[in-house]
Design goal:
mitochondrion; DML1/Misato_tubulin; Rossmann fold; Tubulin/FtsZ_GTPase_sf; Tubulin nucleotide-binding domain-like protein
């Protein structure tokens, strides 16, 4: 078996990951008559449920601040600490202070009542009533809409940051945090190694990270990983901060620091990761025809993470199919020229009109002032993944129309009738009402008809990528001219290091421009 270990670091990454794992859970089959299309052993390992039964758990490490785990964190702490007696090491009086428990999310209560929709089962019409679908206002933590079980070592809780501290974009602090956490918890030698040792043949790691809060932390993690597993591929989805290089106020130390941190993350991942797919912060997304099928709240982590997860899950679907593509092969397809370990994530979700598909396709990587609907840049390579009900009717015409619009040297495409699964945890933000959740309470429990949506996702290498690096290089040049005090900004490098970073970014831009 060729297993993959998954890493999630940061609040938005864990929102994305929760949707991702909920989708994976939807692929499980429980009847011999159902076709098995996903090889679950690639991403899951067998574990025990709270009731002591056998269950599949993600092969996953989740990093976040303690306060972001919600009731999931409390539950695990209780199970680990319930048997501890605080008086064992102290003979004096004990004043016990307990933090108020975070109440379980309403969705988790309803989830326990869900049963499979069985049309052969008769329902009592008196008790067959609708149940309100999950909405953004119901979600406070990413664990609120979680549907899977985790083994304890998956949960990696980092100490909370004081409310008055602004640590976003602090490269040195994030790096020091990893080194301290690894020393205190034996992270690489115990939790991570245990996942590795459970694998028959580990093929690599899949990483999603919030740059602003865990960028340098993840860079240090990958460096440690690379020191021991020099030949294993890594696929990284770094989420950039909301600091757009050419829109930063000249006096904004926080904005400059976050942009510099993004630049250092991009350079670091270039050196240690096989393939990297930068993602623009959802706060910087722009409206347009790509939103025609969605009523999307761009300020809701729950909703924007659902869109990103749908595209990430679809773009990487070949890794988990019954006859899978190897992670190394997927990385090589995207890094066709060998010196360009970056690609762009593009796609349309849901696919609602084949004839207008190009207008409904959005680039989640490039700065939107550079990437217009018309796709002004030539594309050098493209990995198309088209899935869902429209495939049988439109797959050839869709792919042909997309290829004809751009100059693509190398195209890799996969079509599958498997739609993107939409469990009840997924937002009901579709304008097409049949795609929205419609759970109802019956005598058997809460029933929700299975849903899925057609999706087009692609990992592309186009002329838009050089501009990404160019923007950061120009920002640094501007800061050098204005003699910015880098020690005050807190980027963790001196003047010479800043100039070296600028030169490295120009080199990255040139490499991706030349191919």
């Amino acid at each position: 078996m060729r297993e993959i270990i998954y890493i999630q670091a940061g609040s938005l990454s864990n929102h994305i990951g929760t949707h991702f794992w909920n989708a994976q859970q939807s692929y499980f089959t429980y009847s011999e008559d159902e076709e098995v299309v996903i090889n679950h052993d690639i991403s899951f390992r067998e574990g025990l449920s709270p009731q002591g039964g056998s269950t599949y758990c993600p092969r996953l490490l989740v990093f976040d601040r303690k306060e972001n785990f919600g009731a999931l964190s409390v539950g695990i702490e209780m199970s680990e600490e319930t048997d501890q007696d605080p008086t064992l090491l102290w003979n004096g009086a004990v004043l016990e202070v307990r933090q108020d428990l975070i109440p379980e999310a309403t969705y988790q209560t309803l989830l326990d009542q869900e049963v499979d929709d069985d049309p052969d089962q008769s329902q009592d019409p008196v008790q067959d009533e609708p149940v309100q679908a999950l909405h953004s206002s119901d979600v406070r933590y990413w664990s609120d809409f979680n549907r899977v079980y985790y083994v304890p070592r998956t949960i990696q809780k980092l100490p909370d940051v004081a409310e008055w501290e602004n640590t976003e974009g602090n490269w040195q602090l994030s790096k020091d945090t990893f080194e301290r956490y690894d020393t205190e918890t034996f992270l690489m030698e115990e939790p991570f190694r245990l996942f590795v040792e459970e694998c028959d043949s580990l093929q690599g790691i899949h990483v999603t990270v919030d740059n602003a809060t865990f960028g340098a932390f993840t860079d240090a993690f990958l460096t440690s990983f690379r020191d021991e597993f020099s030949k294993l591929p890594s696929l990284v989805f770094p989420i950039l901060s909301n600091a757009v290089p050419d829109h930063i106020d000249v006096d904004s130390m926080v904005g400059i620091r976050k942009a510099m941190n993004d630049a250092m993350c991009l350079r670091g991942f270039n050196e240690i990761s096989s393939m990297n797919i930068p993602l623009q912060n959802p706060l910087n997304w722009r409206g347009g025809p790509w939103l025609d099928g969605l009523d999307l709240d761009l300020r809701s982590p729950y909703e924007v993470s659902a869109v990103l997860s749908a595209h990430i899950e679809t773009a990487t679907l070949p890794l988990r199919l019954k006859s899978p593509t190897a992670l190394a092969q997927l990385c090589k397809q995207s890094n066709f020229f060998g010196n360009t370990p970056f690609a762009e994530l593009c796609g349309a979700f849901p696919v609602i009109n084949a004839e207008l598909l190009d207008q409904h396709t959005y680039n989640f990587t490039g700065f939107q002032s550079d990437v217009r609907v018309e796709r002004q840049y030539d594309e050098f390579s493209q990995g198309l993944k088209l899935r869902g009900a429209l495939v049988s009717r439109y797959d050839s015409s869709i792919v042909s129309s997309l290829i004809s619009l751009v100059c693509i040297a190398h195209v890799f495409s996969i079509h599958t009738p498997i739609g993107y699964p939409l469990p009840t945890s997924f937002p009901s933000f579709f304008r097409a009402q049949h795609l929205n959740a419609a759970p109802r309470r019956t005598t058997r429990g809460i029933v929700a008809p299975p849903r899925s949506a057609p999706v087009l996702s692609s990992l592309e290498l186009s002329g838009a990528m050089p501009s990404l690096f160019e923007r950061y290089a120009i920002l640094i040049e501007d800061c050098i001219r204005r003699k910015v005090d880098w020690q005050v900004i807190g980027v963790g490098i001196d003047d010479d290091g800043v100039r070296e970073l600028r030169n490295d970014l120009w080199t990255l831009s040139d490499n991706h421009r030349a191919g």
